[in-house]
Amino acid sequence: MAVGFLLLASLLLLGFLALCGWISLEGRREEIVPADAIIVLGAAQWNGRPSPVLQARLDRALELYRDGYAPLLVFTGGALPGDQATEASVGREYALQHGVPERAILLEESSHTTYENLAGACALLLPRGARSVLLVSDPFHMARGQIIARDLGLDPHPAPTHTSPIYREPLKVARYTAREAAALLLYLLFKR
């Protein structure tokens, strides 16, 4: 009985570590192609300013926009209790300050999860006939983001940021990758 339990636990651990490895590999992959829109997955904002993680995502999206890969930027993310601004509105202000015209910006401001980010972006894009998207987030977020986007009817192409401050600390990367693996398993089980 104890041997069977140890064997099962070992197999589950190996499977989880393999999933973490796949998430890491998937996060290194890029598909920078012309698309209908660029979706920036939400991250924290600090009193109306982007956190360093959000700024890295915004800078990557602006780079892609300026290089002509897509005509629309979709900023996602709501506000936490007590916040004066949403993550999406902070993205909008940042883009406007960097010369992006208002007509090129769409906002999804009610989400609090990756699924909600993408469902809200999908609701904005699909009625416009936009399906192909460059998905911008941290590398560890790419695998789950693409799976959810596909399930919602989008055609996602990974465009991870290369400047996220998370990647300066290997222990943080390991923690976020493990968290993403758990979140992906929960998504696959419950589709939320």
Oligomerization: single chain
Please state the second-level CATH architecture: 3-Layer(aba) Sandwich
Order of helices and strands: HEEEHEHEHEHEH
Q: How do the strands of the widest beta sheet line up side by side? A: 5-4-1-6-7
Strand content: 5-15%
Task: Give the tally of structural domains.
Answer: 1
Biggest sheet: strands, sense, closure? Answer: 5 strands, parallel
Please tell me what the overall shape is.
globular
CATH fold-level assignment:
Rossmann fold
Mean pLDDT reading: 95
| Terminal CA distance | 35 Å
Query: How many extended strands?
Result: 7
> How many helical stretches?
6
Q: Structural class, please?
A: alpha/beta
Uncertain ranges: none
Going by CATH, the homologous superfamily would be HUPs
- Which CATH class? Alpha Beta
Roughly what percent helix?
40-55%
From the alpha carbons, calculate the radius of gyration and give it in angstroms.
17 Å
Describe this entry's structure for a reader.
The protein has 192 residues and is of the alpha/beta class. It has a single domain, classed as Rossmann fold, CATH 3.40.50. The chain has helices spanning 2-28, 52-66, 87-97, 114-125, 142-151, 170-190, and strands at 37-40, 45-46, 49-50, 73-76, 105-108, 132-136, 155-158. The strands form two sheets. It has a five-stranded parallel sheet, with helices on both faces.
